[in-house]
Amino acid sequence: MIKKDAFLKQYNMDESDLDEAGVSWEELEAIYEEYLSIEGKLRQIGKEFVNDYLYDIERAGIHSYRYRTKDPGHLLEKIIRKRRELPERFAEIDRTNYYKYITDLIGIRVFFLYREDWIHFHRYITSVFENNPLCYVEDRIRDFDGDERHFYIAERPKVYRRNGDSRIYDESLIDIKSDGIYRSLHYIIKYKGYYVEIQGRTLFEEGWSEIDHDIVYPYFKDDVMLNDFSTLLNRLSGMADEMSSYFRRMRSAREQWECQMDEDKFKAKGEETE
Question: For residues 199 and 113, what is the distance between their CA atoms, to the nearest angstrom?
Answer without folding.
Answer: 15
